[in-house]
């Protein structure tokens, strides 16, 4: 009997879980270094998905980190650049809730030395 209720209840009450195949994507790639993220998406999930290191002592969502960075509720289309170079742009606010955030990762730092510079320890003159 429990099996019947377990399979019917989600349909009756529209209970969704992490295994629903039709669940809307919380994060959508928009470009090489750009993603559109649901405002409610957890920082840990973003970090897992993108390999970032977003962190906050007071908030656990991407919306929270925007609010924390500004020390206030943002305006629609307002941008914040974090210390690590990640840019967050608010994409829609409804009833003081950030709907989506456009997250752009910074350009990767080029750590290679210029080709015309001699390597250390050589006697090139």
Chain-wise SSE layout:
Layout: H1 2-13, E1 27-29, E2 34-38, H2 43-50, H3 62-70, E3 79-81, E4 87-90, E5 93-94, E6 97-98, E7 100-104
Antiparallel strand pairs: 1-2, 2-7, 3-4, 4-7, 5-6
Description:
The protein is α+β, with helices and mostly antiparallel strands. It has a domain at 27-104: Uridine Diphospho-n-acetylenolpyruvylglucosamine Reductase, domain 3, CATH 3.30.465. The protein has helices spanning 2-13, 43-50, 62-70; strands spanning 27-29, 34-38, 79-81, 87-90, 93-94, 97-98, 100-104. The strands form two sheets. It has a five-stranded antiparallel beta sheet with strand order 1-2-7-4-3, covered by helices on one side. A two-stranded antiparallel sheet has the order 5-6.
Low-confidence stretches: 19-23
Mean pLDDT: 81
CATH T-level fold name of the domain at 27-104:
Uridine Diphospho-n-acetylenolpyruvylglucosamine Reductase, domain 3
Give the total of beta strands.
7
Largest sheet: 5 strands, antiparallel
Helix and strand succession? HEEHHEEEEE
Form type: globular
CATH C-level label of the domain at 27-104: Alpha Beta
Oligomer: single chain
Major β-sheet strand ordering: 1-2-7-4-3
Strand share of the residues? 15-25%
Secondary structure: helix percent? 10-25%
Structural class: alpha+beta
